[in-house]
Amino acid sequence: MRQVIELDVHGKPVHVLVRSEPELEGRASLWPSVGEYPIYDPFLYTTMTTDEERNKRFRTALEQLAPGRRVLDIGTGQDVVWARESVRAGARQVTAIEVMEDSFRQAAVNLTAYGLEDRATLLLGESTSLAFAPQADVCVAEIIGSVASAEGAAAVLTDARRRHLVPDGVIVPHRAVTRAAAVCLSDVLGEQHIAFAAESIPYLQSIFNWNTSPFDVRLRIENASPDALVSESAEIESLDFNGTLHTAQQTTTCLAIQRSGRIDGVLAWLQLWCLSDDEPLDALRMKTNWASIYCPLFQEPVPVEPGDTLDLVFASSLGADGVHPDYQLSATLHTADGRTHNGSLESPHRGAHFRTHPVYRLLFPAP
Ligand SMILES: C[S@@+](CC[C@H](N)C(=O)[O-])C[C@H]1O[C@@H](n2cnc3c(N)ncnc32)[C@H](O)[C@@H]1O
């Protein structure tokens, strides 16, 4: 069952299509992408603090890298998890930074409760604006999005390496990659389920309030199944935190369609290495707080067969705040009957694009 509800965004009504029954455990559901906005709350922090698939990788890296070193934890969050793990691993000193005031206040309470005040210093602000000394040997920053770069990791860690780290400093995580494959949204979610999960609406409201107007938020799919992929997958962006790190990039890939079906966009998801020789976390195949992001490309689903190909161009460039990226995708589908189908998506971090694709017109019906 779906219903249309009305949000008030700075005095203007915005209609939103919402699922009226609670989501079933493990079933695919639709949320706005939340990580790239300053709307973290205790629920979101808890989903990360209890994400063992994620935490074991960061913990292992810190156990290896932190002993005797100065550690910088960028975006420590309310639970100061990596500051805590660094001290536990034997760090000489930890500087933890948090930009959100409420989270900073709770982090200060937790730092004292964990008895870390002597070994860890907490700073309020954005790492890109703060200056402090001495420089750190190790920087840990879990500012990785479901599209890897979405939370600003490329710009923030380029700045951290330039100003906050010693010349041979090491960054955790080591590498993040976003992969993509062709899908049809109604096959990912089920035809009747293209609507926001009811629990996600307070977050959608917070994102719109922060932007001061509605816009086409990135679409986060919880519990997407790899069975929904219609094509092979390919890497569309790569962030090498201990190598050459780019704040803008463009990739062109050709995805072979692998089975009969239909497609109207691509599903993008994260692979993450905390150490260079790690088994990567794969957000599509493992239970983790990261989800997949559906990017609509075509105006309607297009039937495909094995042998068809999807040429996909993915470009990211820094958005208006100089930290969070805007994305542009364009695609050309070549089908066996000799036809081509073109599709595209503009996905800025924030802005005025609203109801630009059929799926957004369905999710945000005209008032
Ligand atoms: C994904 S959460 C991670 C929280 C915690 N470190 C963890 O791993 O569970 C990212 C946190 O980083 C903060 N943040 C993002 N960019 C930041 C920056 N440049 N400087 C300081 N804090 C930042 C956000 O407010 C948020 O609390």
What does this structure look like?
With 367 residues, the protein is of the alpha+beta class. The chain folds into 2 domains: 2-36 and 176-363, Hnrnp arginine n-methyltransferase1 (Distorted Sandwich), CATH 2.70.160.11; 43-144, Vaccinia Virus protein VP39 (Rossmann fold, 3-Layer(aba) Sandwich). 21% of the residues lie in helices and 35% in strands. It is built from 8 helices and 20 strands. It has helices spanning 42-49, 52-65, 81-89, 101-113, 153-164, 185-189, 201-211, 358-363, and strands at 2-9, 12-19, 29-32, 70-74, 93-98, 120-124, 136-141, 165-172, 175-183, 219-222, 234-240, 249-256, 261-263, 265-273, 281-282, 292-296, 302-304, 309-318, 325-334, 340-347. Strands 3, 9, 10, 11, 14, 15 and 16 form a 7-stranded antiparallel sheet that branches. A 5-stranded parallel sheet has the order 6-5-4-7-8, sandwiched between helices. β1 and β2 (12-19) form a beta hairpin. The longest helix is centred in the first third of the chain and has 14 residues, at 52-65. The mean pLDDT is 97. The structure holds S-adenosylmethionine. S-adenosylmethionine is lined by residues 35, 38, 40, 48-49, 74-77, 79, 81-82, 97-100, 103, 126-128, 142-143, 152, 156.
Summarize the topology.
Elements: E1 2-9, E2 12-19, E3 29-32, H1 42-49, H2 52-65, E4 70-74, H3 81-89, E5 93-98, H4 101-113, E6 120-124, E7 136-141, H5 153-164, E8 165-172, E9 175-183, H6 185-189, H7 201-211, E10 219-222, E11 234-240, E12 249-256, E13 261-263, E14 265-273, E15 281-282, E16 292-296, E17 302-304, E18 309-318, E19 325-334, E20 340-347, H8 358-363
Bound molecules: S-adenosylmethionine.
The site of S-adenosylmethionine has 24 residues, from α1, α3 and β5.
Protein name: Protein arginine N-methyltransferase 1
Organism: Streptomyces spororaveus
